[in-house]
Amino acid sequence: MAEAADIPRTGPSAARRWLGRGAALLAGTALLGGLLHLPAAQAAPVPQAPATDAQARTAQPVSVSLDSFSPAAPVEGDRLTITGTVTNQSKRAITDAHVGLRVGPVLNGRSAIDHAARRDGFSPGADGLEIDEEYAQEIDSLAAGRSLPFRLSVPVDDLDLDGNGIYQLGVSLSGKTAAQPYEQVQGIERTFLPWQPKAAGGQTSLTMLWPLISTPHLTAETDTDEEQTPIFEDDNLAAELAPGGRLERMVALGRELDITWIVDPDLLASVDAMRDGYRVRNADGSTRPGGEQGRKLATDWLAAVESAVAGKKIVALPYGDPDIASIAHRGKNVSGSLGRLKDATDVAASTVETILHVKPSTDFSWPVEGAVTPSIIDVATSAGARNVIARSDSMREAGSLTYTPSAARPIGGGTTAVVADDRLSTLFQGDMTKAGNATLAVQRFVAQTLMTTLQDEGNERSLVVAPQRMPTASQARTMAEALEALDDERWSTPQNLTAAAKADPDARATARVPGNGSYPEALRKQELRKAAFEEIKETQDKLDRFKVILTNQDRVVPPFGRAVDREMSTSWRGLPKEAEQFRSVVSRYLNQLIGSVQLIEKSEAKLSGHSATIPVTVQNNLLQGVDKLVLRLESSKPTRLKIGEGRYQDQPVKVSGGHSQSVKFTTTANANGPVPVWAQLYTEDGRAYGAPIRFDVNVTEFTPTVMLVLAGGVLLLVLAGFRMYTQRKRQARELEAEQGGAPGDPGPGTADEGPDVDGGPGQPGDHGPDTAPESPAPSGPGETVDR
Which InterPro entries has this protein been placed in (predicted)? Predict the structure, then answer.
C-alpha cells in the first residue's frame, strides 16, 4: 500500500518538544566529549561518539522483554505500568545499572510503526531521552547470564504527550561494564503507545474473524455395530476440547468478544459424533472406546459454542474447509472436483443449523492466506460464494492512496472481494507463549488500528482482520487481549463480516484481482497435487457405483461423501504424506466394503448328462441387504455348452445382510470335455461389480457304466437278431416242404419282398426297439452337478 503521505499530523507543540530534546541530546554529547579528554589514569580510552544512528547500533549485551503493558491504550489520568525481565547475555557483569522509560517521537504512518518494530540496537536520535529518573528502577549489578524482573509505573500525564498519535516507547537498561566504565545503553526493547484521550472525528469499523477449524480426525470407517459408532484416527480432538485446549480457549475467549465466527462444519460434525460414543484407533490397527470423558468434553463444548454464537454472526465454510486454490490450480480439470466443492457448500448450512440451531451465511470463500487470482475467484464463485476473503498483500494498492481503504471491493460479476488487512491479520502468528511477544503484538495491533483512523479522520472505513486458520491457545488469548484493548468509544467500533462486505466501497481503492502468475510460489508448493484429485475422483466413482446396490444408502454414502470432502481440506497444505495416507485409508475401507459383496470361488463342475443346473453363490458380508445386482454366467464355448438358451444367462440377485444366496443356471451339453465358464456380477446399469470367477464344467455325457450297459444291450440285440434269423430260415424250409416247391422258390401268389430295408413294417415275430428315441427335454431331477 502506498504510504508516501500517510502522516496523520505533526503539531507545532511536538516540533517544539523535539527541539528541546535535540538540545538536551547535544548537551549530553558535549558532556561525553569532555569526558573523552580526561587523563588516561582517570578514564580508559573510548571510541568517538557515533556520527549517525546507523553507526550507533551495536549488538545488545542485554535482552529486554516487556511482559505486560497496562493499560494498552491509556487516557488522561491513567497510570502506565510496564513489567518485564532483563537478561545479561554477555560474559561481563553490568554495574550501576537502571531500567528507564524513553518516549520517542510521534510516528508518521503505518510503515513507520513497522520500521520501528524491526529496528535493532539503540539509536539515540530515534529512541529519545529517558523520562524523569524518579520512575527508573535501579539495579546495582546484573551478573553474566542472570535475569532480573523490573516494574515501571508512570502517570501518563508525566509523559508529556503532545497530541493524538502513536508514540514510540523504549524500555532500556543502562549501566557500566569493566571494559566500558561509563554509563551506556546495554539493551532496549521498543513498543508503542496509542494516544487518543477522547473520541475524534470518526471511527474505523473493525471486523475480527474468529475461526473454529481443526484438522480432519474422522475417515469414513465406523464400527460394525448397528449404531455405526465412528472410529477416530486419534484422540487429539478430545485434547483440543479439554480445559486449556485450543478449541476450548477459542470458544471461552470468543464468547466475550464482538467477532464474526467462521466455522468448518466438519469440526462441528466430528465433535457431535463423539457425543454418542466413539472409538479410537490404536497403533496396531485395533480400536478402543473413546471413554466417557471424551463424550462429556464433546457435549460441553458444543453447548458452549451454541451459547457463544447466540446473537453473533456465523459464517460456514464449505464442509471440510476445502483448499480453493489447490482446486483452482490442480483440481478443476479433474472431473467431479467442482461438483464435490458445490456439494460441500450445500451441506454446510444444514450441518451447522442441525448442530448449533442457528442459520449461518454460506456465501463466503476463504482462500489460504487471502491470496487470490482470477482462477481462484472463478472456482469460489462456481460453488456459490459471492464474497471472497482476500488480503491486502495479495490485492495491493496500485495508486497513491494516503490511507487504508475499506475492505469491500466489487470485482465484477456480482462478486465482492473482502480485503483483510495484512498487517493486522499476521500479527498473531508468532510464539505467543512468550509474554514479551504477546505484549508487543497487542500494542502493535492497537497502534495500527488508531493509525488507520488518524490517516484520514472523518472518512469512516471498514477494516477486516483474518488471522491464521487454527490459532493456538496462546495466540487466541493474545488476539482476545488486543480486541479488549480497543475502546469502542474512541477510534474503532466492531462490525460483522456481512456488514463489512456490504459497506460502500472506496472508488479509489484497487478492485483488480492479480493475475494467475502472481500467486506466491511458497503457497503453490504446498498445494494438493493433480494426482491427489485423481485419487479423490476414483474414490468418488467407486462410491457412486457401490451405492446403487445398497438397500440403505444412508449408512454408507454420507460418511464416505464427507470423508471425500476432508481429502480436499486446506489443512493438508505442506503435509503431502499425511494427505496421501488419509486418502489411502478412505479408499482401502471403501474397497473392503465393496469386496464384502462377492462371488464364492467354485471348483470344477462335472456334468453327467445332457442337461443340468449349475449353482453360483453370492455372499453379502455387509450389515445391510443388497439389491439391483445381476449375475451373469457365460460359456466360453457355447457350441459345446449352452447357458440358458445361448452363450450366457443373466439372473437378478438380492441378498440380505450377512447372508449368501445360490443362483442356479440351466445348462445344455452338446459334447464331452471341459468348458471354461465365467461368472460376473453387474449392476443394473450394466457396470461390472467386483472380480469375476472362472471354473470349468467337465461334460461327461457317456460315463463308463453307461457304456457297459449300452454294450450289453447291443450284444443282446445281436443275439436276438441271430435267433430270429435262424427261426425264419427253419420256418421257410418247413413251409417249402409242405408245399412241395423247390428250395428257395417264392411261395405262390407272393412277391419277392427281400430284406426290410425301407423301414416298412416288420415281420410278425419282430421285437419292438429296445430304447425310445432321444428326448430333447432337460434332464430329470435325478441329474446332479458335482462341485
Answer: DUF6049, TAT_signal
Q: Give CA 611 to chain center in angstroms.
A: 59
Q: Are 575 and 526 in contact (CB under 8 A)?
A: no
What residue has cell string 449349475? 614
- In the chain, what is the greatest distance between 2 CA atoms, to the nearest angstrom? 186
Place of cell 449392476: 683
Is residue 635 within 8 A of residue 622, CB to CB? The reply is no
- Tell me the backbone φ, ψ of residue 403, rounded to 5 degrees: -150, 165
Give the strand pairing for 204-212 and 626-635: unpaired
Q: Are 417 and 372 in contact (CB under 8 A)?
A: yes
Distance from C-alpha of 724 to C-alpha of 711, rounded to nearest angstrom: 20
Query: Do 205 and 463 meet the contact criterion of CB atoms below 8 Å apart?
Result: yes
CA 402 to chain centre: 40
pTM here is 0.80
Written as nine digits, the cell of 775 is 428326448
pLDDT band at residue 605, thresholds of 50, 70 and 90?
confident
Q: Say which DSSP state 224 is in.
A: S
Q: Give pLDDT, residue 671.
A: 83
472 contacts: CB under 8 Å, gap ≥ 6:
246, 432, 433
The least confident of 325-329, 407-411, 488-492 is 488-492
- Cα angle 275, 281, 286 (rounded to 5 degrees) comes to 125
**Ramachandran category for residue 77: left, alpha or beta (phi over 0 → left; psi -120 to 50 → alpha):** left
Q: Is the Cβ–Cβ distance between 605 and 695 less than 8 Å?
A: yes
429, 475 contact by CB (below 8 A): yes
Strands 204-212 and 165-176: what pairing?
Answer: unpaired
Burial class (CB in 10 A: 0-12, 13-18, 19+), 782: exposed
Contact 72, 192 (CB under 8 A): no
**507: which residues sit within 8 A by CB, 6+ positions away?**
none
Cell matching residue 232: 477416530
Helix (H, G, I), strand (E, B) or coil at 388: strand
Residues with Cβ < 8 Å from 501, sequence gap 6 or more?
A: 364, 387, 407, 408, 416, 418
- What's the rounded Cα separation, in Å, for the pair 42 and 48? 17
